[in-house]
Amino acid sequence: MAAMDNVDIDVLRQVEAWMSAGSAVVLGTITRTWGSAPRPVGSLVAVRDDGQIAGSVSGGCIEDDLIAKVREGALRLQRPQLLRYGVDAEQASRFGLPCGGTLELLLEPLSSASLIATLLARLDGGERVCRTLDLASGAVVLGPPQAGADLLTLSEQSLVTHHGPQWRLLIIGAGQMTRYLASMALGLGYQVMICDPREEYADGFAVAGARLTREMPDDVVVAFAPDGHSAVVALTHDPKLDDLALLEALRSPAFYVGAIGSRINQSKRKARLAEHFGLSAAPLARLHGPVGLHIGARTPPEIALSILAHMTAERYGVSLSSSQLRSGEGLAAEGGCAV
Asked: Phi first, then psi: what are they for 274, rounded to 5°?
């Protein structure tokens, strides 16, 4: 049920290159597993007509079997076909699966109707895309994400998969640290938006793959509509920008809300949010500040790394001790103030 990761996007890029060169390609998608499996549901593998392979769905044995089938001509498919590996203990051992484990793979012969190039263009634009494959014809329809967008859905008629960023990050402030935080987050598969209405910061600011908006942060948070797969991090040090944005973020289901600033400044911020905006103790307790893990970070890239490490721990529900959270004693490169 996992969302597509960067490895699988690389598989699609290789597929598009092979098809552009005139090669026939079969794309395999893991649709179901029973027991443990080396790769999650939704993972991709592609096999070119000469046996060249991209991606993986096992430790290598299934890939070897697919290559052999291609070279024997057994995968000259006219329509999508389901294949199962590891139905019994002997096969499970042969294909590198746990004893008794089973992996189901949908094999799809690709054509212009598969819309691989169109899908990649939309992913490059930062979109999250729903891809519906008709199992009878092999035709594909691309559309917006559906409800329950984390799920891969296989029926007798179609395979529905979701591609592109599952996780989103909104950064308030377009300073130096934001460049590192945005770039690293993009590498982790986040869709990134940066908000800064200040001309002296936003003019000329650009991070490839991230979107910059000049609107007021609180309005941006509302329009961003954070959900349980969203994070909001405030990096401006300016209460006029950070506080209202954090107010809206803390009222949302965002899985992570953080703000730069020393422990003293964080205490003052919480007092302001409680006194002037009536924010109760429960949402205030969700504010991570000083933001990030306590790893001795001092430079902008180090602090960005500590923030993303903390976000990753929160995503996976990892409990952290107080000693692992930032003590507020480190100095940020921006403004020289404690983070």
From this structure: -75, -45
